[in-house]
Design brief:
The chain is built from seven helices and five strands. By secondary structure, the protein is an alpha/beta fold. Strands 3-2-1-4-5 form a five-stranded parallel sheet.
Length: about 170
């Protein structure tokens, strides 16, 4: 099992890594704006990953524990958030964290939301952008994400990767 202390830089995905997500809420908001449901219909994989949260099996306490871990890690590591998301989700994530202490983005040294940088995972461009922007070529980097397809390019860049799941959370890696 990896231990965070051996890394210089930790790069976290947001959805289903730090914060459980619910695409059904996004669908409803977009429907309210006039979009058809099939435009944003989540895949079977996403539905399965989110069903535990929607059934109440993942508690708010888990999210608080994740925030506490990030706060501790921020004292000793460079923390970067790299997430495929949209403006509706970003506002929701920030508000949820703010209810407990401070904005989610304040737990990180840098935040990269796909809609803001015009790139998304798993395309190589977004990883290369972060790699160059933070001069990561000589640093020991750990990237954490819940989707295996998002781990391929970071591995090629020399980052170590961990796939987060219900069985292996960011809390398990302490």
């Amino acid at each position: 099992m990896c231990k965070y202390h051996v890394y210089d830089v930790l790069i976290f995905d947001l959805g289903n890594t730090i914060l459980p997500i619910a695409p059904e809420l996004t669908i409803r908001k977009f429907q309210h704006l006039g979009f058809q449901e099939n435009i944003l219909n989540p895949s079977k994989i996403v539905r399965k990953n989110l069903s535990d949260y929607q059934k109440g099996e993942i508690e708010t306490a888990d999210f608080l524990a994740h925030l506490e871990l990030l706060e501790d890690l921020q004292k000793t590591h460079q923390l970067i958030l790299l997430s495929n998301t949209n403006a509706l989700h970003t506002a929701s994530f920030e508000a949820k964290a703010l209810k407990f202490s401070k904005p989610l983005s304040s737990y990180f040294d840098a935040v990269y939301y796909s809609q803001e940088v015009g790139m998304s995972k798993p395309d190589a461009a977004i990883y290369k952008y972060v790699h160059q922007k933070h001069s990561l070529h000589n640093k020991k980097v750990l990237f954490l994400d819940d989707l295996s397809e998002n781990l391929v390019v970071p591995k090629r860049l020399g980052w170590e990767v961990v796939q987060i799941s219900k069985e292996k959370t960011i809390l398990d890696l302490r």
